[in-house]
Specification:
Elements (H helix, E strand, L loop, with lengths): L8 H9 L3 E5 L3 H10 L3 E4 L3 H4 L11 H16 L8 E4 L8 H14 L3 E3 L5 H13 L3 E6 L17 H17 L3 E5 L3 H10 L4 E4 L7 E5 H4 L17 H18 L13 H30 L1
Parallel strand pairs: 1-2, 1-8, 2-3, 3-4, 4-5, 5-6, 6-7, 7-8
Length: 304
Amino acid sequence: MLASPFPLQVLRDAKRNGARLAMISLYDAPTATLCCDAGVDIILVGDSLGNVILGHDNTIPVTVEDVVRHTGAVWRGVRASSRAQVPIIADLPFGAYATIESATQNGAALLRAGAHGLKLEGAGPAHLQAVEALLQMGAPVMGHIGFTPQSALRFGGVVQGKTARDAARLLHEAHALQAAGCCAIVLEAVPVEVAARITRELEIPTIGIGAGAGCDGQVLVWHDLTGLNPAPPFRFVKRYADAHALLSQAARDFAADVHAGAFPAAEHGWAMAESEREEWEQPNAELGTRSAESERKTSKLQSE
């Protein structure tokens, strides 16, 4: 199937029709193909790759080059699926949109890698300017408020908007991002009442992660929802499989077979036809004899 020239139309259609959106944060081609074929609506190449792929404690070490590389891989996976129109959103990582120049330069790199839109965290004046600059360049932007992992060092806790004052601030930020031109907003770790009101008031879809069922869509990290990550999950994660246990057993079985000499078996390799093997063995035997004799003569000459 050919890719749609307007892949992000799915966001507008979902909001208008009241359809729920399923978004997964993932980072490689095979998983992208699998999720597209499974019916996922949107793929996010999130900077969470720092935690679940690169082994960092947080998202701050993730670079633009990291996201570009994984976005390209995901794009190839989407193209190989039965639903090549599934849109890809790429995270602008920490420091990648500190200035308008860096935002547009890094955003362009991610679009060239295959992203159909960009996501950035925050709704301050500088963030809104970055959104507007990216839109002027032609890049759709998804906002992200509530708990924003790139700013985790300045937070006192995970859940944001628990007080009336903080809830009002989040509502204001959501409207500001919509006014700046965002095509959707991620609400992370926000009380369900706050997320539901933001969703009702906005004309663009909200995608929740730990923000309740009142959002227009939901997003989870692939490694969390499949159980690939063995660490205890966040409260907002629902595990749909225990992939860590399944794959660990596969690795144990492989190692055991190799150690016992049970793998590979005859069916895992190729054998020569008997006539070809006999023809091959005879010349090699003669060649080996001549080669040994030549080496003895060479050694004798060198010793004289």
